[in-house]
Request: fold
Amino acid sequence: MKRLFTRGSTLLAAATIATAGLAIAPGATAGAATPVQKCTKATGTGTISPGLSTTPKDQVIKANMSMTGCTPAAKTGGSGKISVTLKIKQGSCQGLVKGGQTIPIPSATETWKNGKKSTYHLTAKTGTGQNATVATISGTVSTGLFAKKHVTTTLKITTPSAENCTPGHDVKHITLKNTKPWVIS
Reply:
């Protein structure tokens, strides 16, 4: 049950983070556009209300992430903070454990160290099997700095061991960490 819960919460976290714009697909590949900004480290936390359990309920996920190692630093100040709020209809542990879900993230806002802002429109895709707690995020910068550019990253989502989807132990907290850089190109 704990593994089921971990996967379920990880998927939800990935979805949440994805909405936060922190989880994204691999960086630029051969032939792809040169990145206008690349952040090597993204970490954060999120809350899930009322909390994932075995009973499906509408959920609200709020996540905040910090990005560092952003280059070229002259454009952003070298770091940024992203905040996102995501709503999931009838979310549950078992619904997320299956993975392979596509979750729209209509808006996430990043405030760069230099005070400039970027607003993102993203989609999170959760993995399956052993990668059910990994979310690939992709989308575009809808307004602000880097408007109309493409965004990609990948996030790993974890939950506290005590929040394991057993009665009285709903998943209410997530931790996010990128496994691939946040790339805007």
Observations:
- The first strand starts at residue 37 and ends at 52.
- Residues 2-183 form one domain.
- Residues 134 and 164 are 18 Å apart (CA to CA).
- The chain is about 15% helix and 55% strand.
